[in-house]
Every structure is written in C-alpha cells, then in structure tokens.
Amino acid sequence: MGSFERDLIVPEPEEHFFQKTDVIENLKRIENLSKRHPVNVLVAGKQGCGKSTLVRQFAARNKRPLATFQIGILSEPGQLFGEHRLKDGETYYQEFLFPQAIQTPGCVIHLEEINRPEHPKALNMLFSVLAEDRKVWTDELGYIKVAESVVFFATLNEGEEFIGTEILDAALRDRFYVTILDYLPPDVETRVLNLKADIDEANALTIVNVANRLRSNTQEPMVVSTRHTLMIAEMVNVGASVKEAFIYSLQINPDVLESILLSLHVELGMTEKESKRVYLIY
Ligand SMILES: Nc1ncnc2c1ncn2[C@@H]1O[C@H](COP(=O)(O)OP(=O)(O)O)[C@@H](O)[C@H]1O
Ligand SMILES: [Mg+2]
Hints:
It is built from 11 helices and 9 strands. It is of the alpha/beta class and 282 residues long. The chain folds into 2 domains: 179 residues, Rossmann fold (3-Layer(aba) Sandwich), CATH 3.40.50; 90 residues. Magnesium ion (MG) binds next to helix 2.
C-alpha cells in the first residue's frame, strides 16, 4: 500500500499563472461542491493554453495531492489499475497508482487527453468511477470506492480537427462540469513572458505581437501556444534576438517572419555574420 504515497504530493503553486476571474470563481464553487461529493470537471482548450497548469494550480491552492494519468496512451480497460507480472516463475498482480489515488480523500485526479485513448474500450472502467455510485469492480482488487472530496479533472486538447467537447462520448460528457480555456489576451500574455522568462516588456510585447500575427495569418494560420511564446522568451533571455528565437522555436518560414517583423517595425537583429552564412567547426 504505502509504496505509492511518495507520488501523491501537494504540488507547489505556480507564481505567475493568470486566469479569467470567472474561471477562478467557478473553481471555488467546484471546491465547495466537492465537499459534498466527488466532482468531475472537463477542461478543454488548445494545446499549451494552460489546462495542465490550471489543474495543478487547483490542487496547489486547495492543498490537495495531485495524481496525473495519461489517458491518451491507454489500450485496455484495466490498464490504469494494475497488471499481472512475472517474478521467479510466479505471476502476481502489481497495483498501480490509480486505485491508490482515487481512494485518497481530497485527491485531485488529472486524466490527460481523455479524448484520445488508443482503444475505445479503454475508458470503460473509468466510466464507473466517474458515475454516481463512484465505485468499480476489479477481479484483482475487488470493489474500489472513490474517497470523499476527490475531484476528477479531465483535460481535452482542442485541435483543428475537432472543436469543443463534441468528440467525447455523450455518456461521458454528461458527467462533467465544463471549463473552456483560451489563450491569454495580449497584455496578459506579455506580462506572463515578462515575469516568467524575465525579459523586458518591449521584447515581451514584440513576441506576443508576432505570435498573434502568426496565429491570425489568414493564409497559413499557425498554432503558437503560450508554451511556445514562453520558450521564445526564454531564448531571448539568454541572448537571442526575437527573430532568432522564433526561428529556433517554431517551424516557420523565415520570409513570413521577416515580413511580420518589418510590418511591426522591429529591428531584425541579425548580425552580419549570420547573413553571410559563415561556417565554423562546432
Ligand atoms: N494563463 C497562463 N498564465 C501563465 N502561464 C501560462 C498560462 N497558460 C499557459 N501557461 C504556461 O504555458 C505552458 C504550457 O501550459 P500547460 O498548462 O502545459 O498547457 P496545456 O496543458 O493546455 O497544453 C506552461 O509553462 C504554463 O505555465
Ligand atoms: Mg497538458
């Protein structure tokens, strides 16, 4: 039993995580509701818009242990619970973290990429723990009951190929409160880059402006997440020009980038050396 306890820790809060006030208010309601019975929350939004951070922050702010499970890689129903193993010619059942986590009062259970299990039946046993009676039967462990005030967060990556929660099975969708996240508005994203990557505001603003041009480019819109703009800002922090940072962080056509920078009246910041393509031994 005790061997998993080290994995169930309360995460440290993230200092510079910004969210809409109504999303924050709703998370407070979820916290209150969970005191009556376990609650399920679905968090949808594009890649890198802060879904995982929101779940971690909820756990941190409410002093709850957090356990995260990749649903996208599951290929069979019982896989979260444990597996049969062989030792010295004998088989035994190795229990995994999931049964432990759902039986831990107040635990936050993060189900990542619930939209993408490898096998459709992989979610079957999960349905039972998300349903009203909150218990599931396993041949190996017997009945497992969800502990009090557990909160399940499922995150779902919205992509170009689908929008919102439509792709989720109706029966599953029925069991969740839903929170939809979006990328941050420019002024807030600028502040995040400024604070998190420790670059000055002018550079932070340029990065956000360029990213927004790429995002809204009508011919070839690009997905540039907050994760990406942060990576770019960190490159700038260690001495790259904004242009270099974009080139080395995204698969981007340099001509497109150059024209965006020119239209924003940004110094290109490329050195003579680079434009002549000098080669050195590395
Ligand atoms: N609203 C936000 N405020 C501050 N940082 C953010 C925000 N959204 C995303 N980030 C940062 O971007 C990165 C990716 O976020 P993450 O939560 O992993 O995204 P997702 O799970 O939606 O793919 C993290 O470093 C996170 O801290
Ligand atoms: Mg995530």
